[in-house]
Fold this protein.
Amino acid sequence: MQNWKIKASLFLNYFVFAILLNSVGTVILQVQHNFGVPESSASVLEAFKDLSIAAVSFLISSYITRIGYRNAMLIALAFVSLVCFIMPFTASFLTTKLLFAAVGASFALIKMSVYSTIGLVTHSEKEHISFMNFIESFFMVGILAGYFIFSYFVDDTNLQSTAWLKVYYLLGGISLAAFLLLLSARLDESAVQDQNSGGDFRQMFALLAKPVVLVFILCAFFYVLIEQSIMSWLPTFNNKVLLLPAALSIQMASILAGSTALGRFLAGMVLKKLNWFLVLAACLVLAALLVLTAIPLAEQEAGKTITGWSNAPIAAFIFPLIGLLLAPVYPAVNSVILSTLPVKQHGMMSGLIILFSALGGTTGSIITGNIFEHYGGKNAFYFSLVPMAILIICLFVFRRLQKQFVAAKQ
């Protein structure tokens, strides 16, 4: 198969970064046990990850063709491999923050390069869409696998043990394997080498000034704020509110990743036939109803001794199903804005998507962490109802502006 090495490398790249990026919820729980860090302080791990993604995507997106997509991915993989192998020897809250900063910066290079490389190794619109869906699905597989990989290294009998840090040897090994596979692959980047890559930030700000883009940015920001506030704090919610053992708390958070993957798969079929706004609005309303249903169930299960999946409270199974309902929102609005804008602006728009998604993620995690510490875990997850309401309003405005923008082009 043509380009099989480069394609296999893209899958492996996304797999290892899915584990590393979305381990933040697990690590938030573990640093509270290992280093005595309160919830509000632990929440900054999301900021170290997301702000580094935002900074690198903003600074590098206009220059990525000068570096080269393959070179950028090799740099990212080599850097993350080194950091992972160092991590177990330097265990502290500070080095954990630096780890996520390194992972975030590297992922920005990976995501920009992967998105751009897909266009070089596919030869039709259908092939591009198909490969993109496979890549994004594999990212969710990585998230799902990550919960079980990390939980395997967690010792429930000694919560102060830092033995779980040995997981980074495994992750460093996977990253190194991805580096070697990519190193042995060849990628023809001649199609983009002659393009203007002057990095004109004025064009980026001019794009951002368009009303349809500005409202889209708000949609992306609030969606990721909701998603990351839940994903990053679900292991802690399971442990401190539902009173699950630490390893089980991490494992059961995998339900969220699984339901999100299923939600995106089903949405791919549903959105071919139904209006995207009606589907997304209905999903958000149902997600809000699920929050109002699942959190009270958590209160009814208080005080019960839990040893495994078989006697885990029903709330631990129901609440993560919110991923099924939230899943369609982000890919759908991204697709709408990209299909609305000219093709020549897609690269710059992708940089803005990465930038504001990262800002939304870190804002959601920090707000949730502070509410968790001062008002409790149940109120922290009730908070998600506020950005859900704002997001529905933003989607309504976005739909109107998108229709006007398309009409003006015709």
